[in-house]
# Entry
Amino acid sequence: MARNECHARWGVWLRVAGGASWKLVIELEQHAAIAAARSGVWVLAGHRLDLIGDDGRILQSNGLEFDAVGVCEGPDESLWLLGGLARLGGKPIRRRGAGATCWHEMPEPIAATQIACAPDGCAWTVNSRGDLWRLHPDGPGHFAECRQSANCRNCLKSPRAGMVIRVCVGTDGQVWCLTPKTVPGGYCIARLAPGSRRMTELPGQVGAISIAAATGWPDGE
# Structure
């Protein structure tokens, strides 16, 4: 997502693996949230969610009854959506299975300000307190360690509040975060290994203002 040279319009740009240059896929009237998809890229702007192919064609168009601010696609092509009326912690989270048309809203108190899909079908979220949570596709209480309790807090993966401001997940399941700690270049980058609750900061004072993990699919695409 970037503006053109005149800063008049936004657009989605693509660089293929091994390529040296970027190409404009589609121009947009306004800034939008984007997320990688198996067959293109999801573009989310307000009450509209479109799947755009590499050639700029609209492959799927979805009108939304609420204002959405974040989206990600799971490995099974299910969609997780962040948006709607604000609640404590951020915005409600909705999920739609592959090929489905209806959205399932996660119950309160689940809320987030950012969301990222993981290769195991789960999602990782950050709320307004800076807490890092792992969500099961079927909602709270469905992980084995939860023992069907929605209040066990085993899904809370950050050791203390205010630890995280952005999150993404790699194809190997490692969780990458930006923390509020400022370093040269932006915010500190940290990672959380699968099954761990300990965050490891990258050495060398490497900073960033945004973060995204490399995408990939179980079949190697």
Q: What stands out?
A: DSSP finds no helices and 17 strands in the chain. The longest strand covers residues 58-73. The mean pLDDT is 85.
